[in-house]
Structure formats: C-alpha cells, structure tokens
Design a protein that fits this description.
Layout (H helix, E strand, L loop, with lengths): L31 E4 L12 H15 L1 H6 L7 E5 L6 H11 L4 E4 L1 H4 L6 H15 L3 E4 L3 H4 L10 H14 L7 E5 L7 H5 L3 E4 L5 H12 L9 H6 L1
Parallel strand pairs: 2-5, 2-6, 3-4, 4-5
Antiparallel strand pairs: 1-3
Length: 234
C-alpha cells in the first residue's frame, strides 16, 4: 500500500539519452510510458515476506559484478501476483527508484491490437526498446497477454502472442530488470510463469499493516475524531 502523500517532491536521477519509446504501427499510439520513480520503501507498507524477497533481489542486482566474478547472475525477471490494491504496481516503481532507473510502463491499451499478428509485432517493438535503453520494464495486468494457451476462447492469436513473448523474454539482453504483475496468476500460461526468476506474492494487508498505513497517511493532516485504528477497521 502507498503510505505517502501525493505532494512529495519528485527527485529524478540524471537522465540519459535513449531511443524514443516505440509506437504501434497502425494507430501510432505509444507502447511505453517512461516514468521517473517518485517512491521509496519508506512510502510503502508491505508484508515482511514480499519485502524481504524484493530487498534480496535489489541486493543481488546491486552486486551483479561480484556475482559475475564467481559465475553467477542476479535475478532479472520478477512476477508480482496477488489481489488488487496491495502494492504490486507501487513496488515496481520503488524497485526502479532504488535502482535509479526510469520505469518503462508498457501500455496494454496500445499493445493489444485488433489486427492479426500486430500484438506480437508490438511486443517486439517494446523489447527492442528495452534492449537498447536502461530501465525497469513493467508489464502491469500481465494476464492480458500471458493467459494460458489452452484457453477455450482462443482463436490462435493468443498462442502466437504467448509464443512470441517466450522467445523475446529468453533473448532479452537489456540492462534493466523485467517485472510483470497480475491479479490472476492462475490464468497465466505455465511455461511463461516459469520463465521468471522469482514469483512474489502480495497478500492482502493485515489489520496491523492497515493501522500503520493510516497512521502515516493521516499524519500530515488534522483528523479529529478518527484514529488510525478506527480507519483501519472500516
């Protein structure tokens, strides 16, 4: 959960030059939004288990040269899953902020096309951009393109998209990590889910975590007659 106000002063790392974000062929709509992170771990109330796994990922990533010296590589592909509204998207921004990278937010409204084969082509454009530019690639609502290939309502296009994504993920050479998030992990294709180095579950917050969240959120304001405990109980 986001535990900071929206008026926080934005701090951006020094920007580096990159190729312009890709656009879809037909409608020329942007496929990627480049977002500069504004959040840190101090802005989150996160369960201990997912927080530890994300922190471990960040530690591995920051020490990748030392790992390479002994023949090891850090985790580079994370899948966040769990009920909606529990911090998956925010955590992706936090990861980008901790790594001092921009967040490459993939826009599914532009990515998924009505023309046969165009969605897979848009995916290739996204990965070409990610391979060339340094940033955290984030696929939100990942089940929109990662649904199991056994789906009964599929007419063949879904299989092509998933197969294309598998190939692109395997050949990814970008400097930044890839994060995908979904509320419906059981809908994902099993082969696709196995391509991720770690699957991080974001559970619903406990009452204690909700109290902590409202305590931080209510601190800048004068709220009379309502305590953080009462707000959490609502």
């Amino acid at each position: 959960a986001d535990a900071a106000g929206d008026d926080k002063q934005e701090t951006r790392p020094r920007r580096k030059r990159w190729v312009a974000p890709p656009r879809s062929k037909g409608e020329a709509a942007p496929l990627v939004d480049v977002r500069w992170p504004r959040k840190s771990f101090q802005d989150m109330v996160l369960a201990e288990r997912p927080k530890k796994r994300v922190c471990r990922f960040l530690e591995e990533y920051s020490k990748q040269e030392r790992l390479a010296a002994v023949g090891l590589t850090p985790k580079r592909k994370l899948l966040f899953f769990g009920p909606p509204g529990n911090g998956k998207t925010l955590c992706a921004e936090v990861v980008a902020g901790e790594l001092e990278m921009p967040l490459f937010y993939v826009r599914f409204d532009s990515l998924v096309a009505s023309y046969l084969g165009e969605t897979a082509a848009n995916l290739r454009r996204v990965f070409e951009f990610a391979n060339t530019n340094r940033g955290v690639v984030f696929f939100d609502e990942f089940d929109a393109i990662g649904k199991t290939r056994d789906a009964r309502d599929d007419v063949g296009e879904l299989k092509r998209v998933v197969n294309s994504f598998l190939q692109l993920l395997d050949s990814y050479t970008g400097q930044g990590p890839i994060i995908a998030a979904t509320n419906y992990e059981k809908l994902l294709d099993h082969a696709l889910a196995r391509r991720f180095d770690d699957l991080v579950h974001f559970p619903a917050p406990t009452e204690k975590q909700l109290v902590s969240y409202f305590r931080v959120r209510m601190k800048p304001f004068r709220v009379e007659g309502v305590s953080p405990e009462e707000a959490a109980a609502w």
